[in-house]
Amino acid sequence: MQPDNPERDPERTLVLEAFADTIIPGEKRFPEDRAVAGATTGGGAVAAGAVELLETPAGGLAEALDSLVFSLNEHTREYAAEHGLTLDPAVPPFVALPFPDRTALVAALTRPDHPEKQMWVGLALFSNMAFDSAAHLSTPQALAAGHPGLLTIGYEQPQADGLWRFDSFSYGRQLADLHPDTTATGSPA
Amino acid sequence: MTTIESTDVLIIGSGFGGAIPAYHLAAGGARVTVLERGPWLRGEEFDHDFLLGSSYTRVFDFVVGDGMSVLGGNCVGGGSVVYFATMPRAPRFVFERHGSIGRRMWPASISRDSLDPWYDRVAEALPITRQSWDKVPYAGGLFASACAHAGRTANPAPSAIDVDMCTNCNWMMAGCRFDAKRSLLLNYLPAALAHGAEIRPLHEVQRITRTADGGYQVHYRIVDGEDYRILHDSGTIEAKIVIVAAGAGATPVILQRSEPELGTMPAAVGRYFSGNGERLNTAVFDEDRVREVLGLSRPDGRAYQAYQIGRGPTVASWDRLDGNLPEFERYSLEQLYFPPGLGTILAQVPDATGPSWFGVDKKEMLRRWQSWLTIFIMSEDDNEGVFGPPPETGNAHRFSQQMLGHGPLRYRPTANTRRGWSLADADIKDILERDGLAKVAPWTNDLVGAYTVHPLASCRIGDDPATSALDDRHELRGHPGIFVTDGSAVPGALTVNPASTIAALAERAIPGIVRAAQERGISVTYGAPSPDGETAGRRAVLNAR
Fold this sequence. Notes:
Chain A is mostly helical. Chain A contains nine helices and no strands. The model of chain A has no long low-confidence stretch (mean pLDDT about 95). The longest helix of chain B is centred in the last third of the chain and has 21 residues, at about 500-520. The N and C termini of chain B lie far apart (about 50 Å). At the A-B interface, helix 6 and helix 7 of A face helix 5, strand 5 and helix 10 of B.
């Protein structure tokens, strides 16, 4: 399940990165990083592989990414015009937006009454999935390689065979009274 | 030219509604063919892996509708392979519900008392057992302790898990690797196979037509084993009896698509859908307060930080399952684990000032994921779901290679449903935020609408032909010989996990289906023992009849 076009358009990648970074923000990868705004510490959705996941054909969004990127930049131009913002022409419009404005625009695009809500929610869902479940990678391998999302949420390491087992799992004692009407089978009456 | 095959009983779907009739009818002597649209996976094929294409995305289905998203099984064994195996019986008052139709929703012939012998059969077959406190995982213990602190009761819920074999890995939504979860792959289905039933995976039924002699033809397409968006060859099987058990998100769609050739469907096909009144809240606990206020600590010294450990929901609070309370104000609260991916994006930052489901504050919340506790509300919704025109094939327009699609279900929660949710949200906040234990917020319904893991009632039983698609024997009104035995037959929300009730209703429907089969010339009898050979349940239901 490799991305179908590893030589993809760098501007498209920048826009997708900026969107994913708005969903789960991360620290800048290098000082001149424009796509990742650096709104927080530690790796975010971009470092977690959001673009790789979005570009995976099995996900279903890959073919729509060109039009999503085009549309996101169009919405950005409208947003900038409404708010009197001047966008740096050196980078794609959405990438040029300051982080708080990216956040405000994504919030508007994903509101229940927005006609394009479904596709922006889809883009957000996959950005989030790259971070918290690394769906483009084998989970044991992702953990072994230090996947920033799985490590951030504190996902436990598997045992040596790649499977999870928890030998210690219970406080081991009764912690509440049972409902007085519980039946002999353990069900509500 | 394709040959039309034939069988006595054709069953669509292999979850509880399909596996139970498959076993009884095959054991009784009928020729049984089961068509299942998902793959057939077993034991070691159940991965511990979130990778797209692993068992997690192969066996699990997520259909986004307009205002309601439905999660369900998509494999041999259906919901039993992906579910959490929590198996309480529905409380007595549920069977007396009126909903919004002004009369009892359930057939007069069904009450908790009359269903109990059938619940017993299911409990013997899987089996379902009471759970003890010493095996309750940390998350269940934490919820119980918080309930007790708030003056509430809490129960370890009955379960179809062999806890001695369970590793508490919490991967059971991807299928149980260790065969600790007593899915249908371990009881009814192997017993059906032993009696000659045939199960065909990756066969997606599209429609049903009628034959000249009063039988039926079932038309299917073969689904690609890797990319479910691709359909291959088609085929047709003729049968004297058809049992539709494709799940409440798919059964009405197949019937709607069949209507032009089969004839008018009852008005209730594809209406009265219930999401079982489901809703989730996620709490983030203060580990210090868990230790100080509740006195909890793990052997390694941590107070909690164990969201990942366990086996789904294990402890429920049933204080609001009180038949004296008004309808739409009764609900259970159940501790739950929901894996990352789908299970985090909808969780909202408690007391958010900025965006609640994404952004900087959400990431901060994710850093404390192991201190999360998800609370599952199962309430009384208003059967407000309606299916629109069916998609070209299947029950959804498949978006991803596996798992994700868009379906025709529309759901607008009424004031009744929203009142129950609001009362339950406030109750959860009252229990979990006491003395600074946690901060809690409900999941957002803004992204994918409401959501359910327990779709029900889209083709329901009842006594009133205007508001029920099936009579009390589960036969489709106006279409003799077609039966529906899955969650879509349940009249409405149950306020608890429904699998036990779905299975009990399927067990109860079998004698009637056997009689209908006999009337159609099929050589079949009723009276098989439990799949493992036990006979106590059989004796009880035979004595009760």
